[in-house]
Specification:
The protein contains 3 helices and no strands. The chain has helices at about 5-45, 50-60, 60-105. Helix 1 crosses helix 2 and helix 1 packs antiparallel against helix 3.
Length: about 110
């Protein structure tokens, strides 16, 4: 394997880590946003039941927008993980090929 391959592997690894961090951040922020929206609903009607506050939060455009962002973040994380896996398979295939070539050279 050449240096270019390892540079690309490092780049994909870094991108995958960033995508995973974004995904985790959005998953945690989702809970915060839900709470904030429930507080907003409660502020508008102090007697509003919790179930109604929750419905308000889940249907709010900000929450729906967050879910769209989470969808994108998950897709990116999965794409980079698969790209990393494919590169690892290519590396292992090359390593096996080189080991076979060394073994065959030793038999001659």
């Amino acid at each position: 394997m050449n240096e270019e391959f390892f540079n690309k592997l490092a780049k994909v690894s870094k991108a995958h880590a960033a995508a995973e961090a974004d995904k985790c951040h959005l998953m945690e922020y989702r809970k915060t946003l839900k709470s904030l929206l429930m507080i907003e609903a409660e502020t508008s009607d102090a007697k509003m039941p919790v179930a109604k506050q929750e419905r308000y939060a889940y249907a709010h455009p900000k929450y729906v927008e967050l879910l769209e962002g989470l969808k994108v973040a998950i897709e990116r994380a999965v794409r980079f993980r698969h790209q990393f896996t494919v590169m690892n398979m290519e590396f292992e295939a090359e390593r096996s090929k080189n080991a076979r070539a060394r073994a065959e050279a030793g038999l001659r």
